[in-house]
Amino acid sequence: xxxxxxxTLLRDAADEVSVPRLATDELHLRVRAVRRxxxxxxxxxxxxxAIAGALGTYALSGTLGGDEPHIAAAEGDPRGWAVAEGGSxxxxxxxxxxxxxxxxxxxxxxxxxxxxSTQSNARxxxxxxxxxxxxxxxxxxxxxxxxxxxxPYVSWTVEGGDGWLVRVIDLVTGEKVAxxxxxxxxTWAGWKTPPVAVDGEHAYVALDDxxxxxxxxxxxxxxxxGLPGSYTTEVLNGRAVTQxxxxxxxxxxxxxxxxxxxxTRSTEFPDDLIRLxxxxxxxxxxxAPYSTCDEHDNCRYDTPTAPIHDLGQGTETAxxxxxxxxxxxxxxxxxxxxxxVEICDQVGKxxxxxxxxxxxxxxxxxxxxxxx
Length: 372
Known about the structure:
InterPro entries: Quino_amine_DH_bsu (IPR011044). Keywords: Membrane, Transmembrane, Transmembrane helix. It is a single chain. This protein is mainly beta. It has one domain (3-365): Methylamine Dehydrogenase, Chain H, CATH 2.130.10. The protein contains two helices and 30 strands. The strands form eight sheets. The protein has a four-stranded antiparallel beta sheet, with no helix packed on it. Helix 1 (3-15) packs parallel to helix 2. The longest helix has 13 residues, at 3-15.
């Protein structure tokens, strides 16, 4: 039995538990984004969290010295997908939460959506269908943080010693669970400290010449086999999107081995510009074109359709993109066109209207990384 077989069995076993539906950065270069796959080791944990949510309230508290997160209790569906329009966050069940600022990033975690405001790069909040819980995580401005949709952990890097510390906080308890020292050269991006991606108990840190694989619970640091340096991506249940130095060739790889699952070349597309986006379960990849934004930040894809690749079957299907597209945690596509929001199957063919009611248009959809 392979690791993938075991992950599938664990996932299927967790899906049989009668619980509420576990519905809901890559660089945001102002006009484009990327996304994800389910990690089986967290499937049972996510199911347990959903059961806890059905029974009552999540008590999120803890101490962290000077960087103490002050997290209030949160109720409601912790895994709902959502669409943001200005400061309003519209969940797929029709509920609406007011954020209090324009949302430019909605990250899945197993205990709610981690949101960032355009008004303050340092402002983070945990959002569920019950409301907004502001977080005080210390200074996270100008840092690319990492989250895992199937776990309650958030990570970023801070200055420490001759290099940095990979800091990991458990959003359920509010406790700092790791500060792992790393070193190396970091000049390739504009964030204060090296960017981080999180996948279970692994944090991936992109340095100039390599990406580090930090097993944060064990405190072990090694070089990731399947990820290059000087490039930031999400790692989704062991899979990630990489690109060559020119950006012309992009691949989906198994991070642990470097095995290539899909290769795309920009020359195969009309405008020579695409970005691969992984689905939350890692089974599909959307070759999305760039989007063009006007002076009012109204953005549209440069072409109306894009191919979705089934990584297991080796097939592709064209999907209509609308104005914005994202992923629900189960791998379904979320598509927004004007004031209309639809939920579709993984290849965008079978679509249904949702209770989401927008006034003008969606600004951000969960399931895509949009942090600058």
